[in-house]
Amino acid sequence: MNKPFSLDQLNGFGRQSMSDHLGIEFTEAGDDYIIARMPVDHRTHQPFGILHGGASVALAETLGSVASFLSLEDPEHQRAVGLEINANHIRSVRDGWVYGKVTPIHRGRTTHVWDIRITDEQQKLVCVSRITIAVLTV
């Protein structure tokens, strides 16, 4: 990541947004990864009482978008916007927390590609996602 940041700053990004509504919290960050967690509860369930796939995708996109923002060379004149995301849902979760970890696949001048692995509290794989971010000049 190109910008120095704290967990408090990362958690501040999501205030008054979807990630705040879903209860997403950033918990750990390193030179080439960020980890966030999301509760599996009434906010993130689908009608049958398990984690909604869209909530997993929202966690993945939140992680990828923030990671790209922190990787921009010139954040005053660049924006990172989602271009494409996919997800494979591996296992269901009824309650507790899920954890997403984002790592870079490619950080180029005009696109970034990120891998996001979402696991449950027992570190079992729940979802695998990949997001492509467009880097725009504004």
Automatic annotation (TrEMBL):
<dbReference type="InterPro" id="IPR006683">
    <property type="entry name" value="Thioestr_dom"/>
</dbReference>
<feature type="domain" description="Thioesterase">
    <location>
        <begin position="48"/>
        <end position="127"/>
    </location>
</feature>
<protein>
    <submittedName>
        <fullName>Hotdog fold thioesterase</fullName>
    </submittedName>
</protein>
<keyword id="KW-0378">Hydrolase</keyword>
<dbReference type="Pfam" id="PF03061">
    <property type="entry name" value="4HBT"/>
</dbReference>
<comment type="similarity">
    <text>Belongs to the thioesterase PaaI family.</text>
</comment>
<dbReference type="InterPro" id="IPR029069">
    <property type="entry name" value="HotDog_dom_sf"/>
</dbReference>
<dbReference type="InterPro" id="IPR003736">
    <property type="entry name" value="PAAI_dom"/>
</dbReference>
